[in-house]
Amino acid sequence: MSNLxxxxxxxxxxxxxxxxxxxxxxxxxxxxxxxxxSTEVRRLLPNLGRRMIGAWAFVDHYxxxxxxxxxxxxxxxxxxxxxxxxxxxxxxxxxxxxxLGSLQTIRPxxxxxxxxxxxxxxxxxxxxxxxxxxxxxxxxxxxxxxxxHTEPGFEHHPDLPTVTAxxxxxxxxxxxxxxxxxxxxxxTPIVGADLALTRGADVRLPLEPDFExxxxxxxxxxxxxxxxxxxxxxxxxxxxxxxxPLRAESDAGLMLLGGEPFEEExxxxxxxxxxxxxxIERARQDWMSGLRFGVVKGYDGDPLPAPELPxxxxxxxxxxx
Length: 321
Prior knowledge:
Cofactor: Fe cation
Protein name: Pirin
Radius of gyration: 18 Å
Number of helices: 1
Helix content: under 10%
Order of helices and strands: EEEEEEEEEEEEEEEEEEEEEEEEEEH
Structural class: mainly beta
Binding site for Fe cation: 78, 80, 122, 124
Domain Pirin C-terminal: 193-293
CATH architecture: Sandwich
Largest sheet: 8 strands, antiparallel
Shape: globular
Family: Belongs to the pirin family.
């Protein structure tokens, strides 16, 4: 998934200085962002108040959108560096193409995981014949320094492990939850899980006290640690929790995101994650020059040009403003 802002702000993130070591209940409101011609998303990370949760550095929630008579998602070829993209759907389909030659339709509750490493490009689009509704989330995971220059790759995992309790089915997207481990490749201690709650569910989900966590509300009416969380919003929970109370007033869908606080300080600009301004400048120049990121074949349209870099220097700082 691309950040299609034509004047993207540089985001400095990472570092442990602003990690909340104790449990908190910090509600993050989304920012509305236009994605392509017909899709509007709610951006939860980076947020004015918080930029990362563990290694999770970017979260967009979109839909449910009625695209029966629309083209749906249409994101032209664009580059990524220094991160992984996670595609997650509740409704609809997304066709993924990349510069490695991957061609894969991703459907609800299937993991599409792309590791950009040193450089990759891809496109995302709704197939011409598609379901009426499109609803999902697109997320980025920052790669640690030891793996940020790794070879790019794409994984598709249609079958994922689950954790169950009365009224709860948790699908493990990335990392591990309560002993169930996702087949997706992870480079930091992390967890991503889709939580399906039935009406009246009142459960406690086991957590790792050393992780920091956030919960994205996808649908329905639910309370997370006693806080009502509306669809399209996210509750940041801090660290120091061994369990998380969840209660559903209706059938509800949530996403649990967590991991060890990301120690390194990063610069995130447009679709690149780096450590220095030179990293970002070189990536932009390589993309515009047709170097390093490869070519996405089969997409009916031109690749996205990179926006102009800001005139102010890009410097990595802390996790929050």
